[in-house]
């Protein structure tokens, strides 16, 4: 049985009854995944309007916390800004849970752990890039108070709302996307605690910085193949990638252990990047799936697998030929073997087989028995394209699908899923 992501504005603006009516058309949906705290994402992304929201055309995420809990009381040294809707007494998760009583739906809150509007001691908890600049709105998995904060918040959420399963998202180092493309965000983290940890692991931060500087210089000089070779061949860069993965895995290990100690019934699912990209952001499927019975990842083929591919290519290359070269180098770095040009990518995204290829990689990298949800892009595409993506996921090694997302999807897409599922019976 599949699931679908909801944003707080869906519940507050449309109401749970309208949501269940549309979602009910899809068939085979068991899980509703309401977002507990937003990121800085335009809804819908990157353009367009919310097609069935009666209140807002567009909602800009502000990285705020939407549950009726005071995160500052729960962890005074590190906490998240509370959304103004909560201060007005509106509780999106509470409304949804009340409405879901007695229905077949299970509610799994979806929580963004390391990206948002956090406050408190950011010096000991925030990400710093390789040039020593703070990366705005990102917490470091090695941050001093991050495990304590999320332990306390998730325990309190479970107590207040009765939920025991949570989908943990944004458990990684930053990528290059943001308000503006920022490749330096990817080359993190060099906070005090990360630098000390690097030294303990035998990785010297200063020579590593010089190596990453070299990669950036090559990209700036449009030596894309050389930059990829440096990332692939440099012992220091490869050790840094292992350091990132160890940092994220250790964070999840500490968090799940401290939750288990205080409430053994809490279960954490993980929301990960497609495996072609996950490694460079610190996500090690084999180690992470030792601590989670289920995961979702998002092989949204039309959107480059969730990565801002176009933003990165056009940041470094303005001429047509350079862009083609940069795109080839990009695909080689991330182990992709699609015979498409950059121009074709811009128009259509990756070919549909991206969905199956990434799902099969997830299966082979994850611990045996991991329940794998293939994320399915449910906006900015036609009903036929949506059904093709479901078919591709169905043929792959994934167990089921999670749709992203309710509020951005045209009404006709709910019907298309319903018809597709009815055909399968
Ligand atoms: Zn750090």
Structure, described:
This is DUF4015 domain-containing protein. It comes from Paenibacillus hemerocallicola. With about 425 residues, this protein is an alpha/beta fold. It has a single domain (about 1-185, about 245-315, about 350-425), classed as Glycosidases (TIM Barrel, Alpha-Beta Barrel). It contains 19 helices and 15 strands. Strands 6-2-1-15-14-13-12-11-7 form a nine-stranded parallel β-sheet. A two-stranded antiparallel ribbon has the order 3-4. It has a two-stranded antiparallel sheet with strand order 5-8. α6 runs parallel beside α11 (about 235-260). It is globular. The chain starts with a strand and ends with a helix. Bound molecules: zinc ion.
Write the layout of secondary structure elements.
Blueprint: E1 2-6, H1 8-14, H2 16-24, E2 29-34, E3 42-43, E4 59-60, H3 71-74, E5 78-80, H4 84-87, H5 92-100, E6 106-107, E7 110-112, E8 118-120, E9 126-128, E10 134-139, H6 146-161, E11 165-169, H7 183-186, H8 192-200, H9 205-220, H10 224-233, H11 235-262, E12 267-272, H12 275-281, H13 285-288, E13 294-297, H14 309-316, H15 320-333, H16 342-348, H17 353-365, E14 371-377, H18 383-395, E15 400-404, H19 411-424
Parallel strand pairs: 1-2, 1-15, 2-6, 7-11, 11-12, 12-13, 13-14, 14-15
Antiparallel strand pairs: 3-4, 5-8, 9-10
Q: Any descriptors?
A:
425 residues; alpha/beta; TIM Barrel; 9-stranded parallel beta sheet; two-stranded antiparallel sheet; 15% strand; binds zinc ion
Q: Please give the radius of gyration in angstroms.
A: 21 Å
Outline: globular
- Give me the CATH fold name: TIM Barrel
Given the helix and strand composition, which structural class is it? Answer: alpha/beta
Organism: Paenibacillus hemerocallicola
Protein name: DUF4015 domain-containing protein
